[in-house]
Specification:
Shape of chain A: globular
Number of domains of chain A: 2
Oligomer: homodimer
Order of helices and strands of chain A: HHEHHEEEEHE
CATH topology of the largest domain in chain A: Arc Repressor Mutant, subunit A
Strand order of the largest sheet of chain A: 1-3-2
Largest interface: A-B, 36 and 36 residues
Helix content of chain A: 25-40%
Chain lengths: ~140, ~140
DNA sequence: AATGGTGATGAGAATCTTTTTCATTACAAG
DNA sequence: CTTGTAATGAAAAAGATTCTCATCACCATT
């Protein structure tokens, strides 16, 4: 029950929040910008303001329902936290995004933080490259 | 000779470019935003426009002299590429940045990219946490 | 079911970062 | 020195995100 997730976050169960959560769950794209969410809602004839989309996504992030990533290009993308954490591989040509999890890296990160006197709370790992598509390989 | 670096990048050796490169070399802060660079130049009575700062930093990035990182907060920071590549540890409370290199992670990243059919060209790893400073530890 | 308090929303303005435009200026080759 | 072309500065524009504030909707209580 999604509405419970919203409630658990200390937020009222309102139409915008329900619709945005639904959209994130049903979206084919995992990584959406606030603008994407806004446009998708418009397409579904949901009259939800862009400011509300930003507010709700930020609240969902604070509640741990959603993760925000700062991509190249200077904007953020959001994705639903489906339990499993993962990192990203991004094609620098076509923008295709793939996800991965690697326990070796996950473990080393925590160790590195400790070695530097830090207590890790989060991390962001994005690998940029050329994907398999021949069109994405430079001469 | 720094001016050679500028020349090698196919750029004219102009006062703004020389001053910005100098500043990056002599800055105590390794990670500076375009705004930071602009303000530092103002402090040195160098009348260089903000637009030029952005232009030059972008050109330096393209030339491989400088690296751009998209930090949380929706802005980018730049740092001089002093040969050695490294990743970042950021304190989520005070903003302190430390650098590290870990060969285990570097190697795994390349392997992961290949496993996914990608050819890695770059990556960005930022570990967020609480640094050693007691003030930066939440109750 | 009606009501009221508080939190949520929408529209637009505001803010912040970055890019573009365009007239002027400065390199650097001859 | 002259002169073509690239570079610059100022201001405007663009893009992403946040803020303001009047209005509205959730929901606990009647």
């Amino acid at each position: 029950m999604d509405n419970q997730d919203i409630r658990k976050a200390g937020l009222k169960v309102t139409l915008p929040r329900v619709k945005i959560l639904e959209l994130l769950e049903n979206s084919t794209q995992r990584h959406v910008s606030a603008e994407d969410v806004y446009k998708m809602l418009i397409d579904k004839d949901e009259e939800i303001g862009l400011a509300t989309v930003y507010r709700v996504l930020t609240q969902f992030e604070a509640a741990g329902l959603v993760t925000r990533q700062n991509f190249e290009g200077g904007y953020a993308v959001f994705e639903l936290d489906r339990g499993g954490h993962h990192d990203h591989l991004v094609c620098v040509v076509c923008g295709k995004v793939e996800e991965f999890v690697d326990t070796t890296i996950e473990k080393r990160q925590r160790e590195i933080a400790n070695e530097h006197g830090f207590e890790m709370v989060d991390h962001s790992l994005i690998i940029y490259g050329h994907c398999g598509n021949p069109k994405c390989h430079v001469g």
